[in-house]
Amino acid sequence: MSGYTHEEVRSKNCRFLQGDETDRSKGAIKAAISKKKRISVKLKNYRKDHIFFWNELTIDPFYIEDEAKYYLLGFKKTLQSKKSIRIGWKQR
Q1: One digit per residue, pLDDT tens: the chain, 92 residues?
Q2: Mind listing the domains of the chain with CATH numbers?
Q3: How far is 22 from 27, CA to CA, in rounded Å?
Q4: Spatial distance between the Cα atoms of 49 and 47, rounded to a whole number of angstroms
Q5: Backbone angles phi, psi at 23, to 5 degrees
């Protein structure tokens, strides 16, 4: 999907796929984490060839009483539609 090889992405955080237009969601994510609230946002990410695609990031905090700690569980899902596929082809 991203055009990167396994070797290029090994040990990297998924933030390397982000660009300037991804910054819009960062504030909302930070606020939700600090308030220990669930959040789901669309992130504009970029492939190796600079064509964008959309991911949905969901972060769900949960509390473990025995440890008296909050943890964050994150899910990232690629959102693909016929429209975004056509846009991707037009950008080439």
Answers
A1: 778 888 988 888 877 787 777 667 888 999 999 999 999 999 888 888 988 888 899 999 999 999 999 999 999 898 876 555 555 555 55
A2: 6-91 (3.30.450.20)
A3: 10
A4: 5
A5: -60, -25
